[in-house]
Amino acid sequence: MISSGDVYRAYGRLTGLEPGPPEAIPLSENAPLRESRYPYRKVAPNPDHWMIQYDKVLVEQVLLHQTDLPTCILRFPAVLGPKDYRRFQRWLQPMLSDDTELRIQDGWARWRWTHGFAEDIAEGVVNAVTNSASPGRIYNIGESYAPTMAERLAEFARVAGWRGQILAVPASELRETDRMLFDFSHHIVYDTSRIRKELGYKEIIPHEIALARTVESESEHSEKL
After folding, report:
1. What pLDDT score was predicted for residue 83?
2. Which of 50, 63, 185, 223 is most buried, taking the most CB atoms under 10 A from its CB?
3. Domain count, the chain
């Protein structure tokens, strides 16, 4: 079953659904889970939208307590690469347009969130499906080290050959549509050692190539506009 980091209590605190101090990172598979439910219900665009009933904590509980089928839980990171959600679109497009300056929210700039390249994460799914050690287990999957978001953008800038300046500024200095209202003192950083040790997971795409393919994919999107 494909789950994600939004099951962790740290995510509930990041988004303001739950109170409390930042969790110790990295988050292992045994880290506390959210006690709040339906994390996206408040932002659902209509009553019939999938966000109304979405909660992977509940799905995990149901599947782990049934015995009809062998079950493995994979908690996905933020997936990037070709055909992904284009999660870096708003920052890569200025780079590809040769803007001289990129302004990012200061709290987000310091935030850390585990990511993974699409082909690498797909390899992890294959590992889980084909390995007899996986039933009944929960695995975080993603990169072994999560840089800050500012560091991640700097990597993309280097690969894209962009020589502009990345500036971390207060949210008040950004357009209202670009402001993020999360508490970025709560990092979503995974401990991915279990899947590496138990299932032999490792990335199959070199990091530089993964970055380049992500930039190329975004460039292709911009050319179609």
Report:
1. 84
2. 63
3. 1
Cα 68 to Cα 63, 64, 137: the distances in Å are: 9, 10, 15
What b-and-e string marks burial along 49-75, b requiring 16 or more CB atoms within 10 Å of the CB?
A: eeeeebbbbeebeeeeeeeeeebbbbb
Q: What pLDDT does 154 receive? A: 97
- As a whole number of Å, the end-to-end CA separation of the chain is 36
CA–CA distance, 96 with 112 (Å, rounded to integer):
24
* Nearest-angstrom CA–CA distance, 54 and 132: 29
The 73-76 sheet, strands edge to edge:
2-4, 73-76, 138-140
Token pair 């795409």 is at which residue? Answer: 205
pTM for this structure? 0.94
Closest CA relative to residue 156, chosen from 199, 106, 104: 104
Domain that holds residue 122: 2-224
Residue 80, classed as helix, strand or coil, is strand
CATH of the domain at 167: 3.40.50.720
Residue corresponding to tokens 């839980």: 73
* Mean pLDDT, residues 32-58 taken together: 96
Cβ contacts of 4 within 8 Å, gap of 6 or more: 56, 75, 76, 77
143 SS3 class: coil
The residue assigned the tokens 């190329």 is 216
